[in-house]
Design brief:
Elements (H helix, E strand, L loop, with lengths): L5 H10 L5 H4 L6 H12 L3 E8 L2 E9 L15 E2 L5 H13 L9 H4 L8 H6 L2 H5 L22 H8 L17 H14 L3 H10 L11 H5 L8 E4 L4 E8 L11 H4 L2 E2 L1 H12 L13 H7 L4 E2 L17 E3 L4 E5 L2 E10 L2 E8 L4 E7 L4 H16 L6 H23 L18 E5 L3 E8 L2 E6 L6 E8 L2 E6 L7 E7 L5 E8 L14 E6 L3
Length: about 525
C-alpha cells in the first residue's frame, strides 16, 4: 500500500463513518470495497448511499471526498443537490394541501392562480393540478428550461408569465414529454394556496415532521452548510463526458427559481428518512401521517404512459415491460417487479432513488460527478441483491453502454466536421449582425462586437455570454465564456434588405442535455443597431 494516493486514503477512511454491523448484513459481501473500487476506477470524488428495508434504515453512508483533491470526507450527513428526485417533494406538498381540503387534484389551476396562462386559451382553462405534474401538457421536451437553466435573474412569477408564450409541440394530454417549467408553476401554486413560500412550506410541513435534519429547500441554506459536496464533470471541448474530472463552479445549477422542479439538497440520512415515509405511505416511524395514505397512493398511480425505448446491449435487461409517469414518480417494472423511481441531475451532481413497494425496500444513491454508469450500476447491483437476482457487474455494463454513447456522439460531430467551412463567407461584416434581439418566451439577448469579435449575451442568464466564430454561411458557433455550458450554433437569416430578420439556434453536441433547448428559440430584432 506504499503507493496509495491521498484521495484514496480519504476514500477508505470515509467508508467507515456510519457503517454498522446490522448494515453489513443487508448489502452484498464486500460492497464497500466494491464502491471504493468503482469510484477509484472512474475518478468519482464522492458518493452517498442509503437503503431502507421493512421500515428500518439499514444503510446510510458516505464514500470519498466532497471535492476532488480535498481531504474533507463525505459522510452520512453531507448534503448533495438531489435534482429532479425532488419533484416528488413538490407533489407531496400539493398532496398535503389536498389533505387539508384546500386543493383538489382535478381543480383547475387557473381557479387558484388567475395569472396562469398556457399558449392555448382552451388548455389554460382545462389544465388541472394533476396535469402540472405528469408531463402531458403538450409542451416539448424540456421546453422553457433556458428560462432558469443554467442560472436566471428571473423570479418564479416571471417564469409563470413567460409560459404563455411557449408554443406547444403536441396537443394537450396526447403524449408524454418531460418538462421542468410546470413544476415551477406547481411551486407557485403551493404558495398561492398555502400563503407560504414553497421553501417554507416544504421545510415546515415535510422536512420537520420527517426529522430530515440536513435537508434544505433554499439555495442560501445549502451554501451556508459547510458539509456539502462540490460538483464535478468531464468537460472535453469536443464532448461533455470525455476528458478528466474537474471541479465545476459551485453555483452552476438551477438557482432558487427552479427549486420546485429539482433544487433540494439533503444527505444520505435524510434520503433514507424520505424513503421511509414514502414506503410507509406518508407515515413517520412513530405512526403520525405527514400526508394521508390515499394521497400516497394517488402519487404512485400512473397517469400517462411513457414511451419504451429498448436499451441497447449490454444494459438491455433493464428495459421495462411497462413504463408510466405518476405524480413526481416513474412507475415501471424491473424484471417483472413493480418499482417506483426517479433520477435527478443538477450539472455536476446526480441522484437516483428506487422504491420496491411489495418488498418494502428503498435504495438511493447520490454522487458529485456526472458518471451516471457508476451510480446506476451500483444501484442495480444493490437492487439485484435485494431481489435475489444473480449478481452481475452492472458498472462494467454501463461502462460499455457509455463508451458506445460517447463514440456515437463523436462520430456525429465528425460527420459535420469540427472546423468551420472555409469555402463559405458570412453575408455581412461583423457589425452587421450586432443588435438587440428578443424571443417571445426567453426575452432579450444582445449581439455586439468587442475587439473585432462578435459576442452574444443572454442578458437574463447571468454569465451566459460567449464569442461567435464563423462556421459557414451565416451560421456561427457560440462558445460560452463559461466552458461548462453547451456550445451552440446561431444562424442569422436576412431579409430582402440584407438586414438580420431572425436568429435560430441549436446545440452543437448531439448529446447535449435536453434543458439546453436552443432549438425552441426564435430571436427577432428589437433595435437595428446598438
Amino acid at each position: 500500500m506504499a503507493s496509495i494516493t491521498k484521495w484514496h486514503r480519504v476514500l477508505v477512511l470515509a467508508v467507515g463513518l456510519s457503517l454498522t454491523a446490522s448494515a453489513l448484513a443487508e448489502v452484498p459481501a464486500n460492497f464497500d470495497e466494491r464502491v471504493v473500487e468503482a469510484m477509484r476506477k472512474h475518478d468519482v470524488p464522492g458518493m452517498a448511499i442509503s437503503i431502507v428495508q421493512e421500515g428500518k434504515i439499514v444503510h446510510a453512508q458516505g464514500y470519498g471526498v466532497r471535492k476532488l483533491g480535498g481531504m474533507e470526507a463525505v459522510d452520512a450527513d453531507t448534503i448533495f443537490p438531489t435534482g429532479s428526485t425532488g419533484k416528488a417533494v413538490t407533489a407531496a406538498a400539493l398532496a398535503i394541501l389536498v389533505d387539508d381540503g384546500k386543493l383538489g387534484w382535478d381543480d383547475k389551476v387557473s381557479d387558484h392562480m388567475p395569472e396562469f396562462r398556457m399558449y392555448d386559451p382552451w388548455v389554460t382553462r382545462e389544465m388541472t393540478v394533476c396535469d402540472l405534474l405528469v408531463h402531458r401538457s403538450g409542451l416539448g421536451l424540456g421546453a422553457g428550461d433556458l428560462l432558469f437553466i443554467p442560472r436566471s435573474s428571473r423570479s418564479r412569477a416571471d417564469i409563470v408569465r413567460a409560459l404563455r408564450h411557449i408554443k406547444p409541440a403536441t396537443s394537450f394530454r396526447s403524449s408524454y414529454a418531460y418538462d421542468n417549467i410546470l413544476y415551477i408553476v406547481a411551486g407557485e401554486l403551493v404558495t398561492a394556496v398555502s400563503g407560504q413560500s414553497w421553501e417554507t412550506f416544504v421545510r415546515d410541513r415535510i422536512f420537520k415532521p420527517l426529522d430530515m435534519q440536513t435537508a434544505v429547500s433554499d439555495e442560501a441554506d445549502r451554501f451556508a452548510t459547510a458539509n456539502r459536496v462540490q460538483p464535478h464533470a468531464r468537460l472535453d471541448p469536443r464532448l461533455r463526458g470525455l476528458g478528466k474530472q474537474q471541479v465545476l463552479p459551485e453555483r452552476e445549477g438551477l438557482g432558487q427559481v427552479g427549486a420546485p422542479a429539482g433544487g433540494l439538497s439533503w444527505s444520505a440520512n435524510d434520503f433514507a428518512r424520505w424513503m421511509q415515509a414514502q414506503l410507509a405511505l406518508g407515515a413517520t416511524p412513530d405512526g403520525r401521517h405527514v400526508w394521508s395514505e390515499s394521497s400516497a397512493r394517488a402519487m404512485w398511480t400512473p397517469q400517462v404512459l411513457m414511451p419504451i425505448q429498448p436499451y441497447p446491449a449490454p444494459i438491455d435487461p433493464i428495459t421495462p415491460q411497462f413504463s408510466s409517469y405518476a405524480l413526481g414518480w416513474d412507475v415501471r417494472d424491473y424484471r417483472g417487479i413493480k418499482v417506483v423511481q426517479h433520477g435527478g441531475a443538477v450539472f455536476g451532481v446526480l441522484a437516483f432513488v428506487v422504491l420496491v413497494p411489495e418488498r418494502n425496500l428503498g435504495i438511493s444513491l447520490m454522487m458529485n460527478a456526472e458518471d451516471v454508469g457508476v451510480m446506476r450500476g451500483l444501484g442495480y447491483e444493490l437492487l439485484d441483491h435485494a431481489l435475489g437476482i444473480p449478481p452481475r457487474d452492472w458498472v462494467a455494463a454501463f461502462d460499455a453502454w457509455n463508451t458506445q454513447r460517447l463514440s456515437g456522439g463523436l462520430a456525429a460531430l465528425q460527420a459535420i466536421g469540427t472546423q468551420a467551412r472555409k469555402s463559405s463567407r458570412p453575408s455581412l461584416p461583423v457589425a452587421g449582425y450586432a443588435g438587440r434581439y428578443a424571443d417571445a418566451w426567453y426575452g432579450p439577448i444582445v449581439v455586439d462586437t468587442r475587439a473585432g469579435a462578435l459576442r452574444m449575451d443572454f442578458t437574463q442568464t447571468p454569465n451566459m455570454a460567449g464569442t461567435l466564430r464563423h462556421w459557414q454561411y451565416d451560421t456561427f458557433r457560440v462558445d460560452w465564456d463559461d466552458t461548462s455550458l453547451e456550445p451552440a450554433y446561431a444562424t442569422f437569416a436576412l431579409d430582402a434588405e440584407g438586414k438580420v430578420a431572425r436568429i435560430t439556434m441549436k446545440a452543437v453536441s448531439p448529446l447535449a442535455d435536453f434543458s439546453y433547448d436552443y432549438q425552441d428559440l426564435l430571436f427577432t430584432p428589437v433595435l437595428r443597431s446598438l
